[in-house]
Every structure is written in C-alpha cells, then in structure tokens.
Amino acid sequence: MTARRQRGGRPRDSRVDDKILRTTRELIDEVGYPALTVDQIAARAGVGKAAIYRRYASKAELAFAATMYDQQPPPLAGTGSLHGDLLSLVRAFHIRMAAPAARQLAPALISEIAVNPELETRFQDTFLAAEQAAFAEIIEQAVARGELAGTVDPAMAHLLLLGSLASALYIIKLPVDDAMVTDLVTAAAAGITALADRRHSDPARANEPR
C-alpha cells in the first residue's frame, strides 16, 4: 500500500486520497465550485469529513489540488534545453489551468487566500513551493549545461511564466492557445538568460539572495 503524509505527519492511504480528489472533480463538474460542500464530497467518497480535513485545510485547497494539481506538479521533461524544458512544463500547466473547473475555481481561491492567512501560508508552502522547485531544477540543469551564465531566482522564473499565464487566463481572460504559450516561454527564456548574464557580469549582485 502506498502511503503519503497527511497534515499531522502520519501516513495516509493513497487510495483514499485518490477517491477524495476524483470525487471532488466530479462534483465540481456537476454542481460547480460555489455549491460544492465538504459534506457532499465525504458522502460520495464514502469517507468521514475528518479524513478530508486531515489532508486539506479548506474546501478551496482541496478543490485546487483536485482540479489543477492532483498533489504533484508535472514531471520535468528533460529536453536538453532551457526553452524546451520550460515549454514542456508550461504546456502541462496550461492544460490544467485552462480547464473549465480551474477557470471557475481560481477566482474563488484568490478571494479566499486574500482573507485567510492560514490558507495563504499553506498555498505558499505546498503548491507554490512545488512549482518553484520545478523551475529551480530547470534552471540548475541549464546552468550545468552552460546554457546560463549563473543561477536565477526560481521565484522570478515562476512569476514570468506561470504568473503571466494565470493573469492571461483568469484576469485578462485571453484565449490562450499553444502559440501564445510558446511566445510566453520564448520571452521568459530570454529574460531568464538576461538576468543570469547580469548577475554573472555584476560582482555586486553575485551575493544577492537567489
């Protein structure tokens, strides 16, 4: 049996995890996020509410995990180039972020984060930390290949790409297609390269936090 860690640090059954996430996606499709309740999820999944709250701090966090992340960010493609790795990662995120359930949930989640410091902290420590770790690995590999002159803050790479993508999808509401995703990645890769060059060429910036 595969076990993960729940909020209290104890092992948890991945089969229950999967059932909760799958049920959440089904109910969002059926009733929409605003009408969704933890009671509905627990009843259909055949688990207690306590089992859900041991895993997720709120309905918003659970719905976000179920519709957009399913616990883990996309695996890295290892294409051998900075542009290729970024493009593969952002394409995978675009599929998740552009889904109807995600478009419905994201504005509600943003609103809840704004008034719930605990949810904001958990969002930063789980989802955003995992995303930034993926960007950090891509940047480290590009540095190791000699493609970048030095490292770049992964939070900046994350902002350039997923921040722009989220803004386009949820705020400006643009019809984002693969051509636009490719353009975003091309621009961001050039920006990351320029940042690495500037840090490498400016000794005063070399010791700044990354």
From TrEMBL:
Record GO terms (molecular function): DNA-binding transcription factor activity; transcription cis-regulatory region binding
Annotated HTH tetR-type domain residues: 14-74
Domain of life according to the entry: Bacteria
Keywords: DNA-binding, Transcription, Transcription regulation
Species of origin: Streptomyces klenkii
InterPro entries named in the record: Homeodomain-like_sf, HTH-type_TetR-like_transc_reg, HTH_TetR, Tet_transcr_reg_TetR-rel_C_sf, TetR_C
DNA-binding interval(s): 37-56
Protein's name according to its UniProt entry: TetR/AcrR family transcriptional regulator
